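re: ur question from the group chat, yeah i did fold both. here u go
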Amino acid sequence: MKPTRKDGLFLWNVYQPDRRIDFNGFYWARHGGVLVDPMPLSDTAIAWLREHGGVRWIVVTNADHVRAAPELRAAFGARVLAPETDRAVLEASQADAWFGETTPLPAELAMTTEVRWLHGGKTGAEAVLYFRPLRAILFGDAVRSHEIGRLRLLPDAKVADRARLIADVRSLADLEFDAILLGDGDCLFTGARRAFDELLATLA
């Protein structure tokens, strides 16, 4: 579990040799403990989480990022929240509650976390989480990094509607952020706005 420069935010990763990038999971020590798109955790890491307040919520940004959520839900007695657009591809037992464009996150989480939606990717609608107190955006799948400091979109072969996806990514420009957290690839804790603007420029 690696601390970041954002207060109370930790991450851990598992290297993917076929893609030559890390897959990341996140822990925010707020609201009783929030995991996002969690990768598997060692017994040592689970013990560390217990010592630091445990886990109350597990948020999944898209169906492909359920990852270790079921096992960690069982370990901590947490509630799993998943996008309602993924109901058709996720088993009912994989989520305790659903959130969507007309169904907000539980009120406790909604106090600090805004949800935006990216359409046209691999799933019906991928959740983007904006942690207001951290000034950080979290992308699950659609925006990633295969080179440190440079953002890119999913490969075209995995994109259902590139024009719509680009439009939704562009709509995030109004958010005030200085960090970009990525489910796939290297997170940006410096130069995040510049990297995001450079991404938008490549999509012109």
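okk and heres the other one u asked abt
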Amino acid sequence: MQKAIISFVASLIIGFGLGYLVFDVMLGESGSEPKTVQAENSQTAQPKEESTDTKEAAAKTVSVDDDNILNKRGCLGCHAVESLNLKGGAVGPDLSKAFINVEGKHGKPIEEFLKQPTSAVMSGVIGKNPLTDDERKQVLDVLKEASEK
């Protein structure tokens, strides 16, 4: 009897967890605009005069507005990119080093992973809503920048 109760409780927890993952995380934003994620501003006071290096760095920095490909495609609903100060969800791993680490973890270069992911969750996410070639290039540019910081 005790074994049956433990099996029931474990099945219940697994069932609710998978239901949440499939219906809320993966399908929850499919018919709506992705949530806009706000980055924390680490600088409270800006110098009156910026150097050329600072302006160039700011031009390269990924914005957190709707023009950001990771925000536009809903990636930040599950993932954060701490190296770019992009706050996002905690369900997926931080993408700061994804440009470098994906091949070792998933057995294929990141370019190929974004076309056909080998992880169960990402194959469901990208499989239902594949990236265009231009979007894939934008994601790669952002992830490359994140890995360089």
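fwiw on the second one: The chain has two domains: 1-33, 63-149. Residues 63-149 form one domain. idk if thats what u expected
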